[in-house]
Each structure stands twice: as structure tokens, then as C-alpha cells.
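wait is this the right file?? whatever heres the structure
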């Protein structure tokens, strides 16, 4: 029995998946009378490819993995939900998270009636492997890690994640939504080494395609097949598959935009540090900065009133008085800086 066989919920293991017309006949024919589609041509009268074969071939070449190691979801959020449904028995199993972190792990667990064991990162937002080890129970089937972490912005230390991969017998998910902004190759090169590793990435951030809803899970083939078995058969529309395939040709433009955003991140951090109400700027490997100010709510409200929206994270663990600020265009960042400077002056006088 493989590690995955042992971890998968028995009902999922025994499930016979829905077999689409497109699963039963692959290839080209003259006449398709197998799927109850409307025969009159339009760009979308046929059902989409349930396994997104062309798109996966393209993603495989961009990411340097095998197509069988890719799951494509309607945003990474679909992959998060399916992982919990595949491996966690409702009212029995649990996931473990390291706070502060992305909110969807808890929400998806909650929807599925799966307990969430919450541990804390260290004050500089690194993994505390002792705390994690002592919080683990046999019920924990998945550990969700986010690197670079949202909302703190930093990469988690690779050697600590590897330590968890070697010691914990469940699934370790590393959410790399922001990896393109980090000076690090992340965990994709390691999926062949660890059967229980899942890497999540998305087109919503660096690729600038949040509106299309496309997220990816990378893992060994056996685990990917579990996700394919339980997803909705036609989870990615023909339109999205086509547009994403075109958009993945814009890799050079994406790389340029990422470089610009990284430069702006550095510049914004320097200039913010000169504003008196700013108390601390956390180091970022992502496209946002976590900034501690002297009064997060008042600063948020002032910016809001000036038509600038940031994210108030002051109610989040370890984030007292912190705002999360996405890096904008140079003009947007300058207006943010001018507005904050004005606010600091008003308060000083
Ligand atoms: C933005 C974000 C995602 C992206 O989710 P999509 O559903 O792919 O848009 C995933 N994880 C984290 C940590 C994020 O911040």
C-alpha cells in the first residue's frame, strides 16, 4: 500500500468516478452524438476537455514538470477544498495551520466539518517545528504551509519544511501563490522526491490573471489522480482553457512586470520607513508589504477616505496594528506615500 492509499478516505478510495463522454472516447471523429450537445456550431457548443490536456502540456513546459503531475482548479481554492475532501474524514480528522496565514484553509476545513489545529509562527514569522510537532495528533492528515506567507510576506525556511516532510506522515501542502516574487525556486523541484508533498500555485498574482480563476496543484501522479477523480468533470471552461493557453505565451511580459513590482517593493519599503507613523516594515518575498503603524484602524480609515484601500490585518495573530499593502504601479505607490505623509503631518500638528 502506498502512502497515499493509506491516507485517502475509504469512501473516496472506493468511489467510481463519473465518466464523461469525453473520457470514454478520446481522439477525433467526424460526428459526435455522444454528449447530448447542441449540434449547431458555435465556439462553445462542445463540452471542454475534462483533463485540460493542451493546457497541461503548456504548463508542464513552463514549470518543468510532467503533465501527470499537474491538477488544474478553478483557482487554488478548489485544490485546497479537494485536498481536504480527499484526505480528511468529516467530524474525525483535522488539518494543521501555522498562523498568521491565508484564511481559506480554515474556511474549507470548516465547510467540510474538519477540525483546524491552529499553531503560531515565531514572531519573525518562521515555522516553529517544536510547536508543530507537539500539536500534531493522529487525526491531522494535512499541514498547510504558505511560503511566501500571506499576510507576512516572507519565505518559510526550506530546511524546516523538509524536516516536516520527513517526520510528518500526512500530506504537506506548500502554498506558493507568491513564489514568482521570491528569489527562490520553491518546492516544485522536490515533488519527485516526496510522495506526500503538494505545491499550490496560481495565475492570480504574478501572471495578472485573477479574473480567469486558474490555480494549480503539483504533486506525484498518484496524488493528482485522487484530485482528478473527485473534481467536477468540467471544472475549467473551454473559454478559460483557451485564454490561459494564449496568456501563458506572455511569459516575458510577466517576468518584466514581476521585476518592476520587486523594484517598487524595495522603493516603497524605503520610503515608507521615513514616514513617522510607520513603526516597522517586515521583509517581503511577495507582492505586498506587511507594515506596522502606530494606529492601523485610523490609518486605514484615512486612506479609505482618500479612496485608497489597503488590508487591515490588525486583528490577526502576531499582526497588531499591521496593514497589508499590495505593491501597485509607481504612480499608485507615490500617491499612497503622499497620502500617508499628509496623514502623519496632520497628526503631528
Ligand atoms: C491569493 C492567494 C491564493 C490564490 O487563490 P486563487 O484561488 O488561485 O486566486 C492562494 N493562496 C494564497 C496564500 C493567496 O494569497
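ok assuming it is, sequence goes like this
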Amino acid at each position: 500500500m502506498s502512502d497515499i492509499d493509506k491516507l485517502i478516505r475509504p469512501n473516496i478510495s472506493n468511489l467510481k468516478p463519473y465518466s464523461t463522454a469525453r473520457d470514454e472516447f478520446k481522439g477525433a471523429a467526424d460526428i459526435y452524438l455522444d454528449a447530448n450537445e447542441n449540434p449547431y456550431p458555435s465556439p462553445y457548443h462542445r463540452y471542454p476537455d475534462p483533463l485540460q490536456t493542451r493546457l497541461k502540456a503548456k504548463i508542464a513546459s513552463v514549470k518543468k514538470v510532467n503533465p501527470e503531475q499537474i491538477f488544474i482548479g478553478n483557482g487554488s481554492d478548489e485544490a485546497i477544498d479537494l485536498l481536504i475532501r480527499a484526505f480528511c474524514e468529516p467530524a474525525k480528522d483535522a488539518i494543521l495551520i501555522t498562523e498568521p496565514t491565508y484564511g481559506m484553509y480554515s474556511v474549507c476545513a470548516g465547510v467540510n466539518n474538519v477540525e483546524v489545529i491552529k499553531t503560531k509562527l515565531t514572531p519573525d514569522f518562521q515555522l516553529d517545528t517544536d510547536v508543530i510537532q507537539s500539536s500534531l495528533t493522529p487525526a491531522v492528515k494535512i499541514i498547510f504551509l504558505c511560503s511566501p506567507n500571506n499576510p507576512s510576506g516572507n519565505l518559510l525556511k526550506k530546511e524546516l519544511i523538509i524536516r516536516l516532510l520527513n517526520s510528518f506522515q500526512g500530506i504537506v501542502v506548500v502554498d506558493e501563490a507568491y513564489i514568482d516574487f521570491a528569489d527562490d525556486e520553491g518546492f516544485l523541484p522536490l515533488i519527485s522526491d516526496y510522495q506526500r508533498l503538494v505545491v499550490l500555485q496560481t495565475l492570480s498574482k504574478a501572471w495578472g490573471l485573477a479574473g480567469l480563476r486558474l490555480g494549480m496543484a503539483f504533486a506525484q501522479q498518484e496524488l493528482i489522480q485522487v484530485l482528478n477523480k473527485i473534481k467536477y468533470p468540467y471544472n475549467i471552461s473551454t473559454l478559460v482553457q483557451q485564454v490561459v493557453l494564449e496568456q501563458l505565451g506572455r511569459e516575458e511580459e510577466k517576468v518584466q512586470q514581476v521585476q518592476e513590482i520587486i523594484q517598487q517593493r524595495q522603493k516603497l519599503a524605503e520610503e515608507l520607513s521615513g514616514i513617522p507613523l510607520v513603526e516597522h516594515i517586515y521583509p517581503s518575498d511577495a507582492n505586498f508589504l506587511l507594515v506596522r503603524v502606530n494606529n492601523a484602524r485610523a490609518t486605514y480609515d484615512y486612506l479609505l477616505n482618500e479612496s485608497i484601500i489597503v488590508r487591515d490585518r490588525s486583528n490577526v495573530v502576531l499582526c497588531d496594528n499591521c496593514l497589508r499593502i499590495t505593491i501597485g504601479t509607481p504612480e499608485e505607490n507615490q500617491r499612497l506615500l503622499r497620502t500617508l505623509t499628509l496623514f502623519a503631518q496632520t497628526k503631528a500638528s
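Residues 75-77, 102, 146, 150, 175, 177, 202, 204-205, 210, 215 surround pyridoxal-5'-phosphate (CB under 6 Å). so i think its the right one actually
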